[in-house]
Structures are given as structure tokens and as C-alpha cells.
Records
---
Amino acid sequence: MRIALLPCSPTAWRRAGRLLGRVELPVDADALSERVATLVEPLRGLRFGKLMHAPDGLCTSMAQALTGPLGAAPRVVEALAEADMGLWAGLTDDQLRKRFSTAHRQLLEAPLSVQPPEGEDFGQACERVRASLEKSLRRNGREDCGIVLRPMCLALARYVLGDTRESDIWSRARGEDRPVVIDPARVAATAER
């Protein structure tokens, strides 16, 4: 079984480098069509049993657009909702660094110990994502699985699946716009060495 982590629909905020958090933004239909075309090609060898997605509009629109090309029906997983960025939603990384310098340094070194003002503790968000992935993937069996996520949740999922280090979570949350295919069995075998 392989797991394809897929970015949500593109937005003007993402192009401007702004943190999405859980803010509902309009889907850019033209950019969505372009994104679907770039996502499908690297996934051609996979056979999807499920196409799960977070409950927001950006993830739902991407999952629906991928349904035909990937041959899997979308399924909402509430627990895969994006980490709540609280008062940081809409800020660029530069603005965050200037306004919250201590927290920004912590994001680069140990992001799971950070909680944005009026937002969700990233360590707790990571545990929520871990529990949801374990449950959903156990039910999936051996079939390949696609999961459409917003940026921070996608980075947390990569961490949970053993594909990245904690110190890389923040940089990945700001820059993931391509599919990430992970073979959990291969990751586990590499970790055992």
C-alpha cells in the first residue's frame, strides 16, 4: 500500500505565501484545473481504493476534481481538518517572524511545541492526524490511498508517516504543492536500520 498526500485546491493566499489555517477561501477554477493536471501524472501507477479528504471546501473541491482521473470516490474525514492557525491565519512567514519572533524560532526547531494565539496546539493537531490516519489506513487494507489536505495538516501527515523530521514540518507546511507518495512499509524498514 502506498499513500499519496495531495495538496488542496490552490488559492490566491497560497500564491502570496499566506498561512491558510482553516479560513474558507474561494476556489480558483482555472488554477484548480491546472493543479489537477500536474497531480495526476505522477500518480498514474497507483490504484486508489480511497480518496480521503479534509472537510473544508478547498480539500473537497480538489478531491471531487480528482475523482474521475484517479478512479476513486472521495470520502470526508473530519479529523483531518487543518490545524487552526488562530490569529496567524492570513500572515506571511515574514510577518509571522517579525510579529512573533520567539514562536517563529520555535516553529523552525520544534513546531510540535507551538500553539498560535487563539489557535490549536500543533502537538495536539499532530496526534489528531496520527489517530485519524491509523484508523483510516487500517480500514483501507492493502489498496493505495489518496489523502487531500491543507498545508499544515499535509506536513503533519508526512511527519506521522515517517517521511520527514519534526524540524522540517514548518518549511514543508509552507511549500508543499506537489503530491507526496509514501510507502509506509519502506519507511518502517528504513527506520529499523
---
Amino acid sequence: MTRSQETNSSKPQSRQRWIGLLAKAELAELESTWENLPHKPSFEFLRQPETGLVMIQGRAGGSGHAFNMGEMTVTRCSIKLNDGFIGHGYVSGRDKRHAEFAALFDALMQNESISEQLEQGLLTGIESRIFLHKRDVATKTASTKVDFFTLTRGEDNC
């Protein structure tokens, strides 16, 4: 079992979380973090960034039968760091640089010597930005809420 496989199997929920956050990150957040890394590892591409389509599925009523909603553009990338960690990046849209950074940071997060620094410096910031955005949207949505109620008409009470 390689070092990356060992790490992947020990924390699957954590990895799922950070891959999701990296996919939702702003490119500027990733670039800034990369520029501020004291030691940038060398890496090789296992899969160059490439763009394609994936089928999006939905569920009737949120829990009913699955159906195909349509296609979505996705860019993916896979890299291998010189220390053996393998990272994968999947992002919506056509941003190849974003997919490359997502793969790089996925691989770096598997390395325990740097993962805590990235958790505090990068992932926490992404989570905060996403939370604030969702809160702002919810606040704006709540301000347009209309309460409907039914009045009983007098002649219906007879």
C-alpha cells in the first residue's frame, strides 16, 4: 500500500470535505496560498487538465426516482508530487488552472506535515467565505418572504 493510499483510506470523510472545498474555492485563494508556500513541491501530471461533460442527476421530490437533468462542464486534473502523494481535482466549468491547483492541494493535504497549515490557512478561509455568502443570500431571500394566511368569511360560518 503506498503512502497516498494509506492516508486516503484513513480519512475518507476529511478528504471528501477538502476536495469539495477546493472545487468551490476562488482561483485567487488558491494562487495566493501557493505563492505563500515556503517549499513548493515538484510534481508531474498524471492527467493534464482536461475539460469534458458529466451528466447531472436529480431526484423527484428530493428523494424519489433519479432522473437525468442535463449535462455540466467539468475540468479535471491528476498530479503526483515528488514525495509520492497523488492528488485529483474536479471543478465545474473550464478553468484548467483551478483544476490543477485543486489537484495540487489535494495531494498536499494528504501530507501530514503541511495539512494542518493548509487547513488553517486555506480551507478555513474558503469555508468562511462560503458560509458568509450563503448567509447573505438567505438574508436577502428572507426579506422577500410573503406570509399568506386565510381569512374566514362571515357567510361561511353559518
---
Amino acid sequence: MMTPLSLLQQLRTGYRAVKDALPWLDATVRGDESPAFPRFARSPKIAGVTAAVAGTQRGTAAPELLRYDPSVSPPLEELAKQLAAMERGGPALIVLHTDVALQSIPPLAHSHPALKIVVESGPRKILYFLAELEALLASCPNVFLSTYNVCNWLGLERLCGNGLGKKLLFGSHAPAYAPDAAMGPLVMSRLSWQEKCDIAGNNLRRLLGLPQEPAQEVPFAAPQPFIIDAHGHNLTPGAGSPYDFPAPDEDMRPDEWTDFMDSISVEQLITIPARSLWFDEAGRTGSHVLREHAPGRFRYMEVFDPNHGEERLRMIEASLRDPGCAGIKIHPSFHKTAADEDAYGPVYEMASRHNKPILTHSWEMSAHNPVQELSHPRRFHRHLQRYPRTRLVLGHAGGRPSTFDDVVRLCRDYTRVAVDVAGDYFDSGLIEALISEIGSQKVLFASDVDWIDPRCMLAAVLGSSLSDPDALMLLRDNALRVYG
């Protein structure tokens, strides 16, 4: 029987073989943006296309793509002459979804039908707009989508299944962001080899009038499951979704869940059922169908909402006696109650008494989403000082690089604090930087499925510079220790 370490080595080898075989061409290289973790960031080893900024002299003299930047570019309506020239064989135009509203793109595309327009993710999540992007690509023949940060779970499969695979252009936003995070959902997908090659680079080559690059097929096959995903979500089949975007598990059968997990070697998922965040159901109830189908492959967490304090505490107390309950989830931002408020004291005490951890949302200050400040890492010192025996996991590892120093300080000050890397924190070198500063025993693999595609962060780990033993600690061993 293979050991977890040998399974990891097999998975890494298989992932790298497919990655090395695909004909990559990056549509969204950003050489002018510096990585947040320069000591650990890895330079991409794939080709990218040149780009200039629309309406300026900045950039290359003969760009293959033209970026629209509202901070320096004239308004789009003032670029009419340049857009007309671009229709006559000039470069394609890249627009960020945070700079140009998606509903503004169809009029632009229809008034310039020969202009090739590439939509790219801006600095805020584009995953919320999957349905709108799908409609945009379907209605506008000259609009394409960079895959950079399109990290919806099974998002590539959804778009390809709806006949939009030829509209997808691989993008990584390297060197600031990890190329593997963008590569993973494609490399480990079950799309055909032709679809993989198209998205990896040949769609972009066709767009630019370049010859397609043939590639010998290398299939991806995951070894038997061994990974523990320490932070995810699920929807109860047929119960409807509280999300503002489509999630594939709205009507997903339990066997489809385990089939996907098998396809990327995930043995177990610790889930926070989505409706438990809204107090619509208990974690025990919301995970029941999955746990009944595959005992041992799913565990759940109960959510503590301080706005329903006493009622929640009674429910959590009962569930913590259940071996299937991995711990308690708090989300100060979602529940609009700061992490250092008195209301959280009883749940810290309860977690310590039952020797089960608390998993918390953690994030940076956010100008466009100010409630995130309620989950800033600095706010957790108060209760950790009062309850030093409580284990705390900072979900999302603080969310963005601006919190990194505070995350490190918290993990160094309290021996029972760890982090997980769930979410869309794809900065190049993040994982190596965390392990360098807080140690390999304090970082847990997690995905934030059913929002985020687990293959994004898994690929970031597989493609990292971590040794196999350190990678195994992150992917499995640390979760076994922290969550029992």
C-alpha cells in the first residue's frame, strides 16, 4: 500500500507532466507589478504576450494587446479613432471588469464588431459575475475572457459545457500572482485534450493570427485520495442557493461530490454548510446527506452567530459531542460583530472545554467592503489572551498581503494558532513565505469550495518550491493534528 508521501510524489509528478506538455501562452502577464513576497515569488517559465496601455505611449512599441487603464487612458468614447484602427487588424483590447462595467461591454462590442475585446478580472472578485460573463461571451462574438482569477469551482467546465471554450484565454497575472493557481483548474480538469490546448494558449494564438502549437497528449490521473481539505462549504441538494452566483452543487448528488474529490486526491473535506452561515440550518443537518453517503470523508463545523447567541450555543454544545463535528466556525464580518467583542467569549470557552478548534474568517481592511475590518487579524488577540488553551485557525490566512505581518505576529504569540489558505489568496510565494515565518506545522491546505475551485490552491502547493515532506504536512498532516 502506498504511503501518503508516495501518493503526494505521484500527484506532483502527474501534475507537472501535464503542465509541461500544454502549449501555454499567457494573455495577462503584468511585468510592471511587483510580487508581495519577492523572496519567494517564482518567475513564470511560460511565454506571454506584450501589452501597452491604451491612449498613452507607455508599453511596447508594437503591442499584441492594448490595456485600457482609466487612470491614464482617455474615456473609451474618446478612443474612437484608435478603436477603429484596432478593428483593421490592430491589437485586441483588454478591459478589467472593475474598470468597465460588464453591461457596458455589449454596446462597445456591437458598435465595433471587428474589435477583439478581452475581459479580465480586476482586483476584486470576478467569480460573482460568472452568469453575466457567460451571457456576455455567448452574445458577443468578438468578446473573450482571460481565465486569470476566474476561480469558480468547475467554472471552466461550465463555460466549455455551454459551448464557450473557444472564448477562454489563459491568463495568470504573473509575476505578482502564482501561475499554478491559474493553471491548476485546467491541468487537473476532465476537459478534452483539445479543449485544454485551446485554453492554455491556442485560442490566444488564433486571436493574434499566430500558428497554433501542437502538443502530445498527456492524461492527468490522480492517485488514491490522501489530502484533507480543511475549509469548504456545501449546499443541500434541491434546497436552493443563498449565493449571488451559480454554484455547481445546487443540485449535485453526493456521489458527484466524491467523484470530484477522487479526481484530485482529496480524501476528506471539512465543510461549513452554506445555509448554516445564514442560520437557516445546523451544520450537522446541512452536511447529513454527504456524511451519510460517504462516512469518514466529510466532517462539518457548526457556525456561531453572536446575533443568535444563546440558541446557537445550545446547538453547538450538542454537536461538539459528535465525532463528525470538527469544531466551530465564526465569521465576524458576515455577522457584523467584531472579533474582539465580548459575545465570542462563551464560544472560546466551549471550544477549549471540548478540545475542538475555532475556524475564523480573517481578512484585510477593504475600502469596497468595510465590514472585513471586523475580521482583521489584530482583533483576535483579546480572546486568545483570555483563553490560551483554545485552538484558532485563521481562515484565508488574513486574506491579502497587507495583513501578513499581523498574521505572523499572532501565530508567533500564540502556540495554538494556525492558518489555512482557503480562498483566492493567490499571491506568488505566499505559501513559502508563511512556512518561512510561522513554520510548516502551522499552515493547512484548504480551498473554500464550493466558491473557489480547489484545484487553484492545490496546484499552487504542487507547483511550489516546498519539499515533499513540507507539502505533505500542509496537505494532510497538519489538519489531522489540528482537527483530530
---
Amino acid sequence: MYEVIGSLKSRTFRVIWALEELGAPYTHIAEPPRSEVVRAMNPSGKIPILRDGDAILTDSAAILSYLADKHGKLTFPPGTVERARQDAFSHSLLDEVDSLLWTAARHSFILPEELRVPAIKATLKWEFEQNMSKLAKKIQGPFLMGEVMTTADILATHCISWAKTACFPLQQDIIKTYFDRMTNRPAYQRAVGE
């Protein structure tokens, strides 16, 4: 059985949702970043953490790839063109969406107040809107890559949810429809109820 460590109101949600989609048994220990429990497993203090037997894994995107590959679901096979495209989706989401939201969070409540630059949020929101417009043009079906849900869909949906919470602009109807479809999935709803 897997053990997931981290607050659900963080990237830990991605891991919980993936496990629900996979139907894999897990326990969840809700710990905030930098807690003693977290630092004992990850010196950086970052969450999420996945314990699989004696192995301790960190970074939500790496954990998603590990789980998908291990279970042979939510992914295309390694070495295929489809997998390369899936990885491209994941990397661009982390680079062009997640990073903007993380920078906004850092300048809102994470960095020491004297180091925050609140004015940066206007630039981040503008760039986010540009990147959402590009993403909207890439959606190929009910999922990012057509008929197959992948870990990239989990990353995209979590980022859109985060953006809504942070009051980032979401203008594209296709993004709104995609988000509604993804958040109505039973596994997503079970993860929310966790």
C-alpha cells in the first residue's frame, strides 16, 4: 500500500487523484510543508512525498510518472511518439502554467514580506492568459491527447483549479468545459473528499 504525505491543498492532490484513478490502495498523512515528519523524509521540506515500501519519492510530476508507468495506466508506453507528446504536454504545463502560479504564490504569502513584489502578478496573469490560449488550441478531445486520459490531464486540471483559486483569468470556453469534465470524474470527486 502506498503512503502519501502532504496537505491536500497542495500538489499532493495530484498524487491522491492519480491513485484514485488507478484504483490503487493508499493511506494519506496530511502534513504541511517543512513539518518534522516531512523533513525526515525530504530534507527540502517540500511535499508531496510518496512512500512505496522502502522507497521515498518526491516531486508531484515525478510521482505521477512513476505511478503511471508502474500501473500501465494514465500514460502511453515509454519509447513511443505518444509518450513523447505526453511528456511535452507535462513539461510545458509545468514550465508555462505551474511555474507562473507558484511565482504568484511566492510573492503573495510564501516569501518574507520585504522580498515580495506584488506588482509581478499582473505580468504573471498576462502570461498565464497567453499560455491558456495556446493550451486551448492543443486540446484534442475529451482529454488533452484525445480519448486517453494521461498524467498531463491531472497536471492541467490541478493547475486550472489553482488558477481559479488565485483569481487568474480563464477566458477560453474550451478550457472551462475541459475543467468541468475533468472535475466531474468520480476519482476526482473521491480525491476532493479525501
